[in-house]
């Protein structure tokens, strides 16, 4: 039997606050077994990417930097097994040496296994050839071109890097992936080569110059692999040749690691790190450049990215064979 509510009970009920509803707690994502819902098709993304790449091809841009006579054009042609880079002729006595470094870009389409690569090689003829190299690394001297990889050729002196090399790489490493190459490494003994590599790595560390692969790795396996490359292989000691030679009736094989590290360089640039070179350029160098320009100038012109203008158009004709 319920008793009737008194005035006191009514007053007390007004004083007691009503319970607040509990805030909704977001549900944690739960892994759903696709077998319960049927086949979704997430794993087809790899095939979609493959088909798109087969249809449109991929772009890859390489810059080669180094003094004349180090075999830059020969090595690039050997690396891609095609006549991509043109050999520059030496200066005649009557010709006037240019006052600044000129940039030449050559575009080609290379096809292998149904995959087309639109390759652009940016050469720097005249770099380091002038007597007065003062300020030849300044930003205004470098054309606005986005580059995925820069093969920087070092003279096989066996001593140390030249001041021009250090100053140029100090500026260049902020905007592009630098891969160091010791040119004409067959002029050095194995001991000289090993000591020179250690000396180069030490000089780069002292001068705060970063080279590819940089220490951006989050994956432990990638970090272990790239650390080994940084500490052992870099810079690559190579020999380039677009002709075959025989010694004592046997061919000299460039891919023999006992002779040079050309095979390591080729696998590193083309077979294992090509996509990473493109991603680091886009995600790190390009974004860093954009942020700096936005900070310095208060904005970027529409469509301007890393080092600005678009590369020369690449012809649709296949690249001729080197043979």
Give your account of this protein's structure.
The chain contains 9 helices and 8 strands. It has helices spanning 7-15, 34-37, 45-56, 72-80, 163-172, 190-206, 220-233, 262-272, 274-297; strands spanning 58-65, 104-112, 115-123, 149-154, 178-182, 236-237, 246-247, 250-251. The protein is globular, with a radius of gyration of 29 Å. Helices cover 34% and strands 13% of the residues. It has a 6-stranded mixed β-sheet, with helices on both faces. The chain has a two-stranded antiparallel ribbon with strand order 7-8. Helix 5 links the parallel strand 4 (149-154) and strand 5. The protein has a domain at 56-84 and 102-128 and 141-295: P-loop containing nucleotide triphosphate hydrolases (Rossmann fold). With 323 residues, the protein is of the alpha/beta class. It comes from Cavia porcellus. Residues 56-296 form the Septin-type G domain. Belongs to the TRAFAC class TrmE-Era-EngA-EngB-Septin-like GTPase superfamily. Septin GTPase family. One of its GO terms (molecular function) is GTP binding. Residues 1-22, 294-323 are annotated as: Disordered.
